Each structure stands twice: as structure tokens, then as C-alpha cells.
């Protein structure tokens, strides 16, 4: 493919490693919140030791001793597919309006190495044109395979008219596995209302916008000045979803620049989580954890607090420089200048993940609040 058609090369964002650390602290804190050990204090330590066996007097309803959670997947690499959906049930339609179908707004493949020394997150643009497999649909039928379809349509096709999240996730996972050769071990689906509730539980998220951002009135009411401000849940979801307007790459009407804005927001959000010391603030921790757990649908292996806490805890010592975000190498779709296709170099990423190898080192890190320059240079593709 000619160089002029290439839009985005390998772009890695290391500033977001705090997201995984914040997740680890929060999840590990769940157990601490639920089972703090009672302190046994002997007020007469100066007297001669007098052994007292009083267990039988204390009953069975007692606090438990909390130990560091163990990783049930220790030694195994994990590939978690995270799907954000814009499905429009009654609750979500109140945020984004009614729609006949649902799709995956954001899809990220999170690879966690078996030795827990490396984490790589690959964002898959929703407007990628790819081949999709046949899938079981939420209506009980089977869809037709397609040689040319937009990636995020797999979620809608799988969900069917019943908008079934399980079959929607399964169809997307099946597509990713066939496109990449990577075995997906776990998955998470996040709805728009989940983001709203989590942000509100935090008391809002403070961001420092490098320039004003204003959505196209046909699609969004967001209108924010430059500088520091606190976004509530509803404003946050508009910031994460908007693709048309002015400011922070909105002029390009591109899904690629939206990925960069989403990473900018995640960075601000995780900074706030860490600064608030949620692990030691039990009431706020409970509120945030409750919102997170209510916001997701997930595979059974990640569906327990102990499993998530153990996995997160095992990541606490992962070196910052070994946690990276990767964007796929993309080019303009030759059939449609408003869509993109994966370049052959994407195979290097999938092979690296399959063989549990770390991402190559790079120094092209954008500063906080800046839009990735490789994305800004995109002149076509990923438009609505």
C-alpha cells in the first residue's frame, strides 16, 4: 500500500499505566473493605503470660483475616477483550437517543503476560473494514459470513434484534480470534450508563483541556472551555463518545482521534482515583466498586471479586515502562476513503501477543493533554 495511504503507525501511550495500577488497588481493596481482621489487644502485657483459649466463647460470626489475594491465573498469559457498547435500552437511550441496533463503540484487546512483567493494550478502531465470520445471533439464528464489513457491526449482528449482550460479545470475540489468531481468554462489556455511574461515584473527574471542545449540535451538546474543570457522569460520556465538532481532533470527524481522547480521559480519571486514596476511604471505595461491578458484563472467570483482586494484585509490581497502549497500523480503505483497513504490519502485533512477547521499546510518547500527532495527521478514514 502506498505510503500516502498510511494513517497511523505503532503509537504507544505509556501515561495510561496508572489505569491498571488504580484497578489493582481498587480491586485488592474490595476484600480489605469486606473483611478487616479484628485486632486482639492484651492490655496487661506486663504480667506473666497467661494462655487463654477463648475461641469457643466468640461464636462463628467473626471478622476474617485478609491475606494478599492470589492470582488464580499465575503463570498463564491472559487476553481480555474489553468492549464498550452503545446499546440503547431505555436507560442508555436517555443518554444518546434511540437507535434500532447496538454496536461496540470501543474495543480493546488487553494482553497480560504470563510472568506479569508486561501488559499491552491494542485498540481496534470501530470503522475498520474486515472479514466477519458467521455467528449465532440473539434471536437464535445464524448470521452470514462477510468478506467486507465494518468491525463494530459484529457486536450488533451477534446481538440481533433481541440485543443480547452474550451473543453480541461472542460474535465480536469470534471475529477478533479469526482476524488475529489470538485466543481470547476473557471478556468484559461496559455500557454507557456504567461510565456515568462510576464517574458520579467518584464525584466527577477533573480534566485539563488543552483547548475548547464543542460538539456538532446535530450529534452532541458538549461545549467545554479550555482549562481545568470537573466533568460529571453525563458530560463524561459525551466527551468519550463525541466524534464531530471542534477541538481535540473533532474537526477530523474520526474514530482514531476519539481513541486518543478516550485515553486522555482515562489518564485524568486514574490520577484522581490514586490521589483520593480510595483503598483507605471505605465508604467511597464501596460506592465506586458497587458502580463498577454493576456496570459490566463479564466472562465467568472474571466474575468473582477474588479472581479479579488476585489478578490485579499480581500486576502491582509490573514496571511502568512495560505497560503500553498500541494502535494498529492503518491505511485508507481503497473502496471507501471514509473507512480504514489494517496494514500487513498488524500481523507483527498479533504474533507478538500469541507468543507472549513484550512490545518493542519506543520513545514517541505524547505529553499529557496532547493529541497523538500520528492520529492528527489522518486526513481520511474512520469517519461516520
Plain-language structure description:
With 384 residues, the protein is of the alpha+beta class. It has helices at 17-34, 55-58, 90-96, 153-159, 165-180, 192-201, 233-241, 255-275, 282-295, 305-314, 346-354, 373-376; strands spanning 6-8, 78-85, 104-112, 119-124, 129-132, 146-150, 186-191, 205-209, 213-215, 223-224, 227-231, 245-246, 296-298, 323-327, 330-333, 336-342. Helix 6 runs antiparallel to helix 9 and helix 7 (233-241) runs antiparallel to helix 8 (255-275). It starts with 5 loop residues before the first strand and ends in an 8-residue tail after the last helix.
Report the radius of gyration as a whole number of Å. Answer: 23 Å
Uncertain ranges: 1-48, 88-98, 364-384
- Tell me the number of strands: 16
Largest sheet: 6 strands, mixed
Q: Please, what is the average pLDDT?
A: 74
Short description:
With 384 residues, the protein is an alpha+beta fold.
What order do the helices and strands come in, and which of them pair?
Elements: E1 6-8, H1 17-34, H2 55-58, E2 78-85, H3 90-96, E3 104-112, E4 119-124, E5 129-132, E6 146-150, H4 153-159, H5 165-180, E7 186-191, H6 192-201, E8 205-209, E9 213-215, E10 223-224, E11 227-231, H7 233-241, E12 245-246, H8 255-275, H9 282-295, E13 296-298, H10 305-314, E14 323-327, E15 330-333, E16 336-342, H11 346-354, H12 373-376
Parallel strand pairs: 2-7, 4-14
Antiparallel strand pairs: 1-15, 2-3, 3-4, 5-6, 7-13, 8-11, 9-10, 9-12, 15-16
Helix pairs in contact: 1-8, 1-9, 1-10, 4-5, 6-7, 6-9, 7-8
Amino acid at each position: 500500500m502506498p505510503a500516502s495511504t498510511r494513517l497511523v503507525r505503532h503509537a504507544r501511550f505509556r501515561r495510561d499505566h496508572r489505569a491498571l495500577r488504580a484497578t489493582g488497588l481498587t480491586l485488592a481493596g474490595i476484600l480489605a473493605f469486606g473483611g478487616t481482621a479484628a485486632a486482639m489487644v492484651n492490655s496487661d502485657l506486663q504480667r506473666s503470660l497467661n494462655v487463654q483459649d477463648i475461641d469457643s466463647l466468640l461464636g462463628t460470626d467473626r471478622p476474617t483475616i485478609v491475606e494478599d489475594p492470589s492470582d488464580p491465573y499465575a503463570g498463564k498469559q491472559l487476553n481480555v477483550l474489553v468492549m464498550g457498547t452503545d446499546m440503547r435500552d431505555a436507560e442508555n437511550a436517555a443518554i444518546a437517543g434511540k437507535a434500532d441496533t447496538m454496536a461496540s463503540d470501543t474495543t480493546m484487546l488487553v494482553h497480560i503476560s504470563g510472568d506479569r512483567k508486561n501488559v499491552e493494550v491494542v485498540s481496534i478502531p470501530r470503522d475498520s473494514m474486515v472479514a466477519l465470520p458467521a455467528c449465532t445471533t440473539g434471536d437464535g439464528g445464524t448470521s452470514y459470513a462477510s468478506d467486507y464489513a465494518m468491525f463494530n457491526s459484529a457486536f450488533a449482528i451477534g446481538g440481533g434484534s433481541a440485543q443480547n449482550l452474550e451473543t453480541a460479545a461472542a460474535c465480536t470475540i469470534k471475529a477478533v480470534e479469526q482476524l488475529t489468531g489470538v485466543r481470547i481468554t476473557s471478556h468484559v462489556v461496559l455500557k454507557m450508563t456504567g461510565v456515568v455511574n462510576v464517574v458520579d461515584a467518584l464525584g466527577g473527574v477533573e480534566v485539563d483541556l488543552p483547548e475548547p471542545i464543542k460538539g456538532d449540535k446535530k450529534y452532541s451538546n458538549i461545549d467545554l472551555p479550555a482549562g481545568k474543570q470537573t466533568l460529571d457522569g453525563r458530560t463524561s460520556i459525551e466527551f468519550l463518545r463525541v466524534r464531530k465538532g471542534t477541538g481535540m481532533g473533532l474537526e477530523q470527524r474520526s474514530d482514531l482521534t476519539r481513541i486518543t481522547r478516550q485515553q486522555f480521559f482515562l489518564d485524568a480519571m486514574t490520577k484522581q482515583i490514586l490521589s483520593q486514596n480510595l483503598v483507605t476511604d471505605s465508604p467511597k471505595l464501596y460506592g465506586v466498586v458497587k458502580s463498577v461491578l454493576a456496570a459490566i458484563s463479564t466472562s465467568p472467570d472474571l466474575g468473582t471479586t477474588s479472581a479479579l483482586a488476585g489478578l490485579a494484585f499480581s500486576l502491582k509490581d509490573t514496571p511502568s515502562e512495560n505497560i503500553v497502549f498500541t494502535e494498529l497500523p492503518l491505511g485508507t480503505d481503497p473502496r471507501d476513503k471514509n473507512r480504514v483497513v489494517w496494514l500487513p504490519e498488524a500481523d507483527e502485533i498479533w504474533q507478538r501477543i500469541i507468543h507472549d512477547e513484550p512490545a518493542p521499546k519506543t520513545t514517541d510518547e505524547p505529553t499529557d493533554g496532547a493529541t497523538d500527532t500520528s492520529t492528527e495527521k489522518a486526513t481520511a478514514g474512520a469517519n461516520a
